[in-house]
Write a structure and sequence with these properties.
This protein has helices at residues 129-137, 147-150, 152-163, 178-186, 208-216, 229-234, 254-258, 261-264, 280-294, 316-332, 365-377, 418-428, 449-454, and strands at 8-12, 15-19, 51-57, 62-68, 97-100, 108-111, 123-126, 141-145, 167-173, 191-198, 220-225, 269-274, 297-302, 336-340, 385-392, 395-402, 405-412, 436-439, 445-446, 466-471. The chain is of the alpha/beta class. An eight-stranded parallel β-barrel has the order 5-8-9-10-11-12-13-14, surrounded by four helices. Strands 15-16-17-20-18-19 form a six-stranded antiparallel β-sheet, with helices on both faces. Helix 9 (280-294) links the parallel strand 12 (269-274) and strand 13 (297-302). The longest helix has 17 residues, at 316-332. The chain is globular and about 65 Å long.
Length: 474
């Protein structure tokens, strides 16, 4: 590990093997694994890939804490701010927000012999920096296509990550043919849930016996209706010639639809497609109401992509606020599980948009939002109660209580003076001694709302999501 200067994770028998980061430089011959130009010095000075690990060892198992140094050399005695401890997958894993793994995360890339350290053959290498980012953010819930289950090498990787506490949601169009279905049944233990997209008017065509058998075996099945052109036009939306599936928060008769026998007999949940401009809080609220009436839970697809496949979505502030809102809503409303549709940048093809990591798989602002909010919300054992929502004059506040206190998420907009936000925050939330105000971008903890608002000047022009943690015993 001291020579490779890159991250990889493998399992050998019962042993977890982590190749550690370097604090000095990156072996830049491995820059070949990325599909964009390398960082400075031909990839050698890729600062976000510098750092070290803190390994937490428990009676049963361990967790890996990633500390990125970015090449900075500073002693602990010079650090002026506390930062949030990141959530760990064990001993109490509670990943709130999940991600789609759209890019090929198990691809083997051939590294050409450079003449520096290898001259006589190519090396076959996998890009594990996506895995590093997921571990770092505290994310353990992932959506994967059926190809990841069918191919032996990919399936082996699912097994490795399941050992680390990752949970996989499979998604397919309809019920696959017999050979593929057999693979699902054989490797059911790797899956937490299965989302099946199919026209609602043709549900009776699905093999109900097989679906009921899988659900009886503990695999949660979710239904996502394929939406036709006529259905989209009926809702006064502009039609684009792209695939569109899932219920929406505007489906006024959703509970009645889900109560139908052909859905209730086979499925334990349903999919909500949350458009770019739809409010995550409404999706969580709807999911909780539907569960009370039907017993079904929701898989909410938090779309970063727009409706127009040619529109480029590059608004970092919008991405950060959307991630924060989705993560808090998923925590406040347990009947919903949120999956973000964009992990890495999609800088080519349809629906171009930014993700939480770039194409070098280095952190971007959305990464820090997920990491820091997961560090707090993912570590809570108490169930959320009394969720509430406030929106006024450029500030949105999400709130929920637990047995130990109150948590609130404040999203800022319109670039108002900090005193404006402070007045509005204090009209809704009580700023009392013992409160912790957390800058969602930097992870820094402050003792007052005013100090936390003042820290916005340090977040490169972005307005940070602010998380309040109020302990009743303070």
């Amino acid at each position: 590990a001291g020579h490779v200067h890159n991250f990889w994770y493998n399992r050998f028998g019962g042993c977890d093997c982590y190749l550690a980061l370097s604090t000095a430089f990156v072996r830049h011959d491995y820059s070949e694994i990325f599909r964009v130009p390398p960082n400075a010095e031909h990839g050698r000075n890729d600062a976000p890939k510098l750092g070290y690990f803190v390994v937490h060892v428990f009676e049963h198992g361990h967790t890996l804490e990633v500390v990125r140094t970015y090449g900075i050399e500073v002693g602990l005695e010079k650090q002026s701010k506390d930062s949030v401890v990141i959530v760990q997958p064990s001993p109490k894993p509670n990943s709130v927000l999940g991600f789609d793994l759209r890019q090929d995360w198990t691809e083997q890339v051939q590294i050409p012999p450079s003449g520096g350290l290898d001259e006589f053959d190519r090396k076959s290498i996998r890009n594990d920096y996506g895995l590093l980012a997921l571990l770092d953010m505290g994310v353990r819930k992932l959506r994967v296509p059926i190809s990841d289950l069918l191919a032996p090498s990919r399936r082996s990787r699912l097994e490795d990550l399941a050992h680390l506490g990752f949970e996989f949601t499979l998604y397919t169009f309809g019920v696959p043919e017999a050979a593929q279905l057999k693979k699902i049944q054989q490797h059911r233990s790797l899956l937490t849930s299965w989302e099946i997209t199919w026209p609602q008017s043709h549900l009776d065509e699905l093999d109900r016996t097989t679906l009921q058998s899988l659900s009886n075996d503990g695999l949660a099945l979710f239904f996502s209706p394929l939406r036709s052109k006529a259905e989209i036009i009926q809702t006064q939306q502009k039609y684009y010639h792209v695939i569109n599936h899932g219920f929406t928060i505007h489906d006024v008769h959703l509970s009645d639809t889900l109560a139908q026998e052909n859905i209730r007999a086979c499925f334990q949940g349903y999919v909500i497609r949350l458009g770019l401009h739809d409010n995550p809080w409404q999706a969580g609220q709807l999911a909780q109401e539907v569960e009370a009436k039907t017993g079904l839970t929701a898989s909410v697809h938090l779309r970063i992509a727009g409706d127009n496949p040619a529109e480029s979505i590059r608004n970092t502030q919008q991405l950060c606020d959307r991630l924060a809102g989705g993560l808090f809503s998923g925590w406040a409303y347990p009947a919903s599980t949120f999956f973000c549709d964009t992990f890495a940048d999609n800088d080519r093809g349809y629906f171009p948009r930014i993700g939480v990591v770039d194409r070098l798989y280095n952190p971007q602002p959305g990464f820090h939002i997920v990491r820091n909010l997961h560090a707090v919300l993912g570590g809570l054992a108490d169930a959320p109660q009394n969720p509430r929502f406030h929106e006024k004059d450029g500030i949105t506040i999400y709130q929920a209580s637990t047995a130990s206190g109150t948590l609130a998420l404040c999203l800022l907009s319109n670039n108002q003076p900090s005193v404006h936000y402070l007045v509005e925050i204090e009209s809704v939330l009580v700023d009392q001694p013992g409160n912790q105000w957390i800058n969602g971008l930097s992870g820094a903890i402050f003792q007052s709302a005013q100090d936390c608002l003042s820290s916005a000047s340090e977040t490169e022009g972005l307005l940070p999501a602010i998380l309040l943690v109020c302990n009743n015993t303070a």
